[in-house]
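#struct-pred
JK: can someone run the complex with protoporphyrin IX containing FE? inputs below
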Amino acid sequence: MPLTCQPEWDVTNEIFGWACILASVVMGLWMGVRFQEENWLGGYGTLARRMVRLAHIALAALGIVNIEFGRSIGELGLSSGLVHIISFAFIVGAVSMPACCLLIATKSRRFEMFALPIGSLTVALVLTIWGLLG
Ligand code: HEM
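RT: done, structure tokens with the ligand placed:
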């Protein structure tokens, strides 16, 4: 087996991360068409407009986090079971954070749904730091 061969989940987080950044750019293009309207979604400072912006930024930022995780996997002193859990938790966080932001933007006021991205990202980050220390 060639030395450059990586486990499947390593590449999964990297590819997923790049796809998130692409989704952020596509979303930015959609926003770019509309933001010239002064009162798009009620104006720049409204909750709906801020949540759409946050979804756009979260996609890009959590995409980068997924890529970085994929690149750190080789340095983690953890079992492959734990690494799979972290990998999955980072993906859940990157999907659910922008999804929650967009749901809030559509007038839902169930802020408790943010427990999903916050919880999964916290688990993923704590385990990653632990794995790098160990
Ligand atoms: C072709 C790609 C992109 C386009 C066309 C685009 C477009 C936009 C637009 C129109 C807004 C303003 C939204 C509003 O008025 O409410 C915005 C905000 C923002 N975008 Fe993008 N975006 C792109 C890519 C990105 C990427 C890759 C990132 C992060 C790495 C990013 C970070 C931000 C940030 C931080 C804001 C908030 C700025 C503020 O509130 O002052 N954008 N983007």
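RT: quick notes.
Confidence is low (pLDDT under 50) at residues 1-5.
The pocket of protoporphyrin IX containing FE is lined by residues 24-25, 28-29, 31-32, 35, 44, 49, 53, 56-57, 60 (CB under 6 Å).
JK: thanks, will look after standup
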